[in-house]
TrEMBL record:
CDD domains: PBP2_TAXI_TRAP_like_2. The keyword Signal applies. It comes from Tamilnaduibacter salinus. NCBIfam families: TRAP_TAXI. Pfam families: NMT1_3. Residues 1-22 form the signal peptide. This is C4-dicarboxylate ABC transporter substrate-binding protein.
């Protein structure tokens, strides 16, 4: 049974886009569901807030559904079980190529990009009391939490750790559960791949001392050479535990829609999101990167025609060959 968090459109916002009530909504669904990820992670916080924002402004009720994250969201959007979702470029590319572990051989070609979200840093966190201050410090056989099974973190981080010579016991769970397990000493490390600040880390560092571990230059080079990630610095002011920026790697996130969703609905959703960044940042700080200038970070998915129309109208180039 699905666990849904339905968010009613019951309030009024000062950030409304151009009125849409007078437009033809006859082909719009009565409501929509957005696939996010586990509670305690950025996807759920960002996605719940975005669904509420859309509901407030576009006269359509929406909700955020707890899922296994980017890989599962690709499958749910492909099949139409949910019409919208959040994903990262690595799982998106693998899913389109038929390499999803959730549906081997199924080429998920009816999933379209809507707008850029933010970069997902891959970061490692341990309790300060553990003495683990670097990846080299992680002891052989350490229990490492990699997030929900099938998530971006679970798909890529174990392979990254193997590339860096770490011997570990793999653990899965929601980010909030893994944070609790780390605090209780049931696991040694959590390998987070989520937009920053990660709610579970922010909560942890209020309750206990944590080490947010950077990659060395050599470690970052090994990882970027082998995986679809790039270098990234977690700013010092992201967490109170950081004394300086944390050097890690990251992967881009995009919102997605089933390609059969009406163009006019996707156009209005994209317009609302791209033209109200202050409101998006109030939902989650990671949305500072939810801006149209990052349209070129989509390297894996075709564009939904409704989204492409907004970007083109506002001077951003999207070739015809990239539109579904």
């Amino acid at each position: 049974m699905r666990l849904r968090t339905l968010i009613a459109a019951t309030t009024t916002t000062l950030f409304a886009a151009a009125p849409v009530a007078a437009q033809d909504h006859s082909d719009w669904p009565e409501n929509f569901t957005l696939g996010t990820a586990s509670q305690g992670g950025t996807y759920f916080a960002y996605g719940s807030g975005w669904a509420n924002f859309v509901s407030e402004n576009l006269d359509i009720s929406g909700g955020a559904e707890i899922t296994g994250g980017p890989m599962q969201n690709m499958a749910l959007v492909q099949t139409g079980d949910v019409k919208f979702g959040l994903t990262t470029m690595g799982p998106a590319r693998a899913s389109r190529q038929g390499n999803s572990p959730l549906a081997p051989g199924m080429k998920m070609e009816n999933v379209c990009a809507m707008f850029p979200m933010y970069q997902t840093p891959f970061s490692v966190t341990a309790l300060a009391a553990s003495g683990i201050e670097s990846i080299d410090d992680i002891p052989d056989g350490a229990k490492i939490g990699f997030g929900p099974a099938g998530s971006t973190s679970d798909t890529y981080f174990p392979k990254m750790m193997e590339t860096l010579g770490v011997d570990f016991e793999r653990q899965n769970g929601s980010w909030s559960d893994l944070g609790t397990q780390l605090q209780d000493g049931l696991i040694d490390v959590v390998a987070f791949a989520a937009g920053i600040p990660v709610p579970a880390i922010s909560q942890l560092e209020v309750q206990t001392g944590v080490n947010i571990i950077s990659f060395t230059d050599e470690e970052r080079q090994k990882v970027t050479n082998k995986f679809p990630v790039s270098e990234f610095t977690i700013p010092k002011d992201t967490y109170q535990s950081l004394e300086s920026g944390s050097e890690v790697v990251s992967m881009w996130n995009f919102s997605i829609a089933n390609c059969d969703v009406p163009d006019s609905l996707v156009y209005e959703m994209t317009k609302l999101t791209m033209e109200n960044n202050d409101r998006m940042v109030s939902i989650h700080k990671a949305a500072q990167s939810t801006i149209p200038e990052n349209v070129d970070k989509n390297t894996a998915l075709p564009w939904h025609p409704g989204a492409a129309r907004w970007f083109r109208e506002n001077g951003y180039e999207i070739p015809d060959s990239r539109i579904q």
